[in-house]
Amino acid sequence: MQTNEEAIAYFLADNAERFSQETKRSYHLSLHQFSAFSGRSFSEVKPLHIRAWLADLTERGLKQRSIHLKLASVKSFYRYALEEAWVVKDPTVHVPSPQIEDSLPHYLEKRELAALMEWTKGHPRERAVIEMLYTTGVRISELLNIHLRDIKWDARQVWIRPSKGNKERFVLFTTECAERLKHHLATRHTASPYLFENPKGEALSHVYVEQRFRDYSEALGFKVTPHTLRHTFAAHLAVKDMPQSYIQELLGHVNINSTRVYTRLRETERKKQYDQYQR
C-alpha cells in the first residue's frame, strides 16, 4: 500500500493531461493539508474525519467557496482511489459539499487601480505585469507563459497558448500597455524568450508573483491578487456595456454562464452611481 504522499503523487501524475496547472497546484496543496489534519493513512479515512476537517476549515474562517474547492480535491482523489482498488469504499460519498453563497467577484475601484499602478511605477517589470493583467484579462498562468514571439506589436495582440482545460485565443492590449512592455524589455538585464523572466532567463514563477501581490496588498491597505485584475478587466468592460459574448471571448470562458456574473456587476455599479447622485 502506498503512503499518502505516494498516492497523491500517483493521482496527480495520472491526471496531468486532464488538470490545468492551477488545478494541480490547488489539489496538491489541499490533499496534503487534509492528510496532515487526519494524521492517518488515506485508506483508513472515514466520513467523520472529512467532516471534522471541513468544520476546522470553517472555524478558521475560510470562505464556503474555498472549502468547496478543497473538498472537491478530496472527492476527486477518492474516486480515483476507488477505481484503482486502493480503497473498498469512497468515504466522501455521504459528505455533502457546502453551499456556495452567490457572491459577486471582487474587483478594484478605479482609485484602487490607480494606486496600484502608482505604487509599481518605479519598477518596469512589475508595472508591466500589472498593465498586462488589467489590459488583457489573462490568467496569471497564461501571462507567465507568454513568449516574445507570441506578441504581434503592430496589431497589439497576444497569442495565448492552449493549456490544460483552456483553448488558445488572441487578446488585445492598449498603446499604453505596449509602452510599458517595451520599457520593461529595454531595461531588463537577462536575455529570455519569455515576456517576463527570472534571473536565469526562465519564466517568472507563479509563487514570486503571488508574493509580490501580497506585498502590494499590505502596502496599499486593500487586497489585490492577479485574479483580482482579471475580474477588474471584465467588470470595467461590462460597466462600459461591452457585449457578454465579447467579454467571454477575451476571458477565454467556455461557458457563457461564467461571464454573466459581470452583467450583475454592471447593475451593481450603476446602482452605486445612482445612489451617489441622490445624496
TrEMBL record:
It is found in: Cytoplasm. GO terms for cellular component: cytoplasm. GO terms for biological process: cell division; chromosome segregation; DNA integration; DNA recombination. Signal peptide: none annotated. Its main location: cytoplasm. The keyword ATP-binding does not apply. Coiled coil: none annotated. It comes from Salibacterium qingdaonense. InterPro entries: CB, DNA_brk_join_enz, Integrase-like_cat_sf, Integrase_catalytic, Integrase_recombinase_N, Integrase_SAM-like_N, Tyrosine_recombinase_XerCD. Keywords: Cell cycle, Cell division, Chromosome partition, Cytoplasm, DNA integration, DNA recombination, DNA-binding. SUPFAM superfamilies: DNA breaking-rejoining enzymes (SSF56349). This is Integrase/recombinase XerD.
